[in-house]
Amino acid sequence: MTRIALTLLSLALLAAPAGAAPITTLFSTGLDSSGNLLAGGAADLDYIILETGDPTVVMTDTRFYLPNDSGSQWISETADGRLTGMTRTYQTTFDLTGLDPTTASITGWWAVDNFGEDLRINGVSTGYTLPDYLYENFQTQHALTITGGFQPGINTLEFVVRDVGVRTGLRTYLTGTVNPIPVVGGVTTVPEPSSLLLLSLGLATVALRRLRR
């Protein structure tokens, strides 16, 4: 009986998922790498404009927008190259190296000036858009939840924003969690459910045979 108990305990420890931890490299708009608010006009290096390759900046005139707070701020592109009716893709990246991407999730909200054409993870649409309600798009928080499409290593989020004035604007508040990759016998691996089932059956068979003897 002792051997069976030890076998089942070992199996439980192997199969138990590790506790979720924050995705520390995922940032809301308008913050520095330590999560502190950037000054108005400062560059937000965690977000870039794909069309120009330039980093974004914290907007200084936000009187018509959802007010900034301690969690995030409005960002836009620099004054150079602003065109009426343009579309801009705001991209941010986060790193899941050493973490299990199948357990990752992101929640939060976004707001845009004026229209949200798409929200993509690793180039794949999440289905989120903000197509209507011209003023509500930049005066209201719009919830988002992403639970799939993650990959090992570097991941990208892209917010595609179309403007009807002279500049686009984006504001996000994002939090994420992910589990570390389990370590088994000194090797990091993410066992598939079928593999765990086969392992369980094998160990159970061995334990039963020993008990009968």
How would you characterize the overall build of this protein?
- The protein is of the alpha+beta class and 213 residues long.
- The chain folds into two domains: 1-17 and 191-213; 19-181, Jelly Rolls (Sandwich).
- Helix content is 18%, strand content 37%.
- It has three helices and 13 strands.
- The chain has a seven-stranded antiparallel beta sheet with strand order 4-3-2-5-10-7-8, with no helix packed on it. Strands 1-11-6-9 form a four-stranded antiparallel beta sheet.
- A hairpin with a 4-residue loop joins β2 (43-49) and β3 (54-58).
- α1 runs antiparallel to α3.
- The chain starts with a helix and ends with a helix.
Describe the secondary-structure layout.
Blueprint: H1 2-15, E1 21-22, E2 43-49, E3 54-58, E4 75-76, E5 87-95, E6 99-113, E7 115-121, E8 124-125, H2 136-139, E9 142-146, E10 154-162, E11 169-180, E12 183-184, E13 187-188, H3 193-212
Antiparallel strand pairs: 1-11, 2-3, 2-5, 3-4, 5-10, 6-9, 6-11, 7-8, 7-10, 12-13
Summarize the structure.
By secondary structure, the chain is an alpha+beta fold. Helix content is about 20%, strand content about 35%.
